[in-house]
Amino acid sequence: MTDQLKLTCLHEAHLSLGAKMSPFGGFDMPIQYSGIIDEHNAVRTKVGMFDVSHMGEIFISGKDATAFVNHIFTNDVSGMPDGKILYGMMLYPDGGTVDDLLVYKEFAPDSYLLIVNAANISKDCDWIMEQVGGYEVKVDNRSDEWGEIAIQGPEAEATVCSVLGLGDAASLNFYEFCNFQIDGRRVIVSRTGYTGEDGFEVYAPVDMTRLFWDKLLEAGVKPCGLGCRDTLRFEAGLPLYGDELSAEISPIMAGLGIFCKLDKPEFIGKEAIAAQKLAGPAKKIVGIEIQDKAIPRAGYPVELPDGSQVGVVTTGYHSISLDRSLCFALVDSAYSALDTVLCIRIRKRVFEGRVIKKRFYQTKYKK
C-alpha cells in the first residue's frame, strides 16, 4: 500500500513505535500508538506530539505578494505585522471552499508562507498558479523540504523550551511565530495547533525534524496519531476540510464568516459570500448532542421528530473529554437554531438530540 502513498520524514519512527498506520491525505500516517483515548487525554492534561509533516508549505513572495495573497485569501493581510499568522480560506468564485489554511507574514518585505492541507497541496498549488495573471509574484511549493511536529497540551511551552531548547518561543502569543537558526538552517516555531489546547508547531528541515522527534521521545513526550488529533479538534469546534468545509460547503455555511473580510476591496468569491451572508445560506453546519451513548458517525441522516430528513452528520464521536455523544451536521438552515430538536438515525434506531454550540470543549488556556 505504501508504494502508492507518500511517506513523511518520520515514517520509519512510526513503524519502529508500532503505530497503527493508515492512508490520510495521500500519505501513510500514524492513526494511533498507545490508543486514541490515552493519547487524547495526554494532550488535554499534559503534552503530546504529532507528526504533521504531511501539511504543505507554499511560499509567496515578490512585489505584488501582499495584493496577490489578499486576492486569493478571505482574511485581510494588508498591514499584517511580521511574525503574525491569520486563519482563513481560499474560495472558488461561487463561494465554495478551495481550502482552509494559515498565512504567516514573513520577516521580510512582501513575503508570506501558506500552510495548506495535505490532501490539497497539488490542487492548491495549481489553483494558486492559475490566479497569478499579471501579479508579480513567485510561488514556491517547498512542502517536500520541510518536516513539522506539533507539540500540544498544557505542558507544551515548557517542553518546547526545555527539551528542544527553543526558549524564545515562550514569548509568542497565540497565532504568532518566530525564526531560529540552528546549524545555519532555519527553524520556524509558531504558537498554533489543532487541538484546542496551548501548543506549538515546529517546522524544520527533514533531518532536523527527525532529531527533534527523537529528543521529544527520549524526554517522555507521548507520540499521538491522527485519530486523537481528530477527536481533539472536534471537541474544540474546529472544522476539517472535506467534512465541515468543501467545494460545496462555504465558510458562511460552516459558521466561519468572521474570517471572510467583506470590507476588503476584493477577493475571489467575495460577491458570492456577501450574497450568501445577506440572504442566509440554505444549509448550515451545527453542533448536535444526542441523549444516549450511541455514536453519530459521518454520513448518518439527521431527521425531524416526524422522520423527515433535514441533514447529514459530517463528524461525530462520543466525546472523550466530556463523556457526551456529539456531532457536527450539515442541516437545512430552518432547523439550525440552538435547542432545535433533531434526531440522528443510527442504522435502524433513531436517537433524539438538540442543536448546541459547535465548540463543545472550552480550554483553560489563555495567552
Task: Explain the overall architecture.
Helix content is 20%, strand content 32%. It is α+β, with helices and mostly antiparallel strands and 367 residues long. The strands form four sheets. The protein has a six-stranded mixed sheet, sandwiched between helices. A six-stranded antiparallel barrel has the order 14-17-16-15-18-19. Helix 2 packs across helix 7 (226-235). The mean pLDDT is 97.
Secondary structure layout plus pairing:
Blueprint (H helix, E strand, L loop, with lengths): L10 H6 L3 E5 L2 E6 L3 H10 L2 E4 L4 E6 L3 H8 L12 E7 L5 E9 L5 E6 L4 H11 L6 E4 L4 E7 L3 H7 L14 E6 L2 E6 L8 E7 H13 L3 E3 L1 H10 L34 H10 L3 E8 L10 E3 L5 E10 L6 E8 L8 E6 L2 E8 L11
Parallel strand pairs: 3-13
Antiparallel strand pairs: 1-2, 3-9, 4-7, 4-8, 5-6, 6-7, 9-12, 10-11, 11-12, 14-17, 14-19, 15-16, 15-18, 16-17, 18-19
Give helix and strand order, one letter per element, not per position: HEEHEEHEEEHEEHEEEHEHHEEEEEE
Number of helices: 8
**What is the radius of gyration computed over CA atoms, rounded to a whole number of angstroms?**
21 Å
**Helix/strand-derived class?**
alpha+beta
Helix content: 10-25%
How much of the sequence lies in strands comes to: 25-35%
Taking pLDDT < 50 over at least 5 consecutive residues as the criterion, the unreliable ranges are none
Quaternary organisation: single chain
The averaged pLDDT comes out at 97
- Reading side by side through the largest sheet, how are the strands ordered? 10-11-12-9-3-13
Outline type: globular
- Give the tally of β-strands: 19
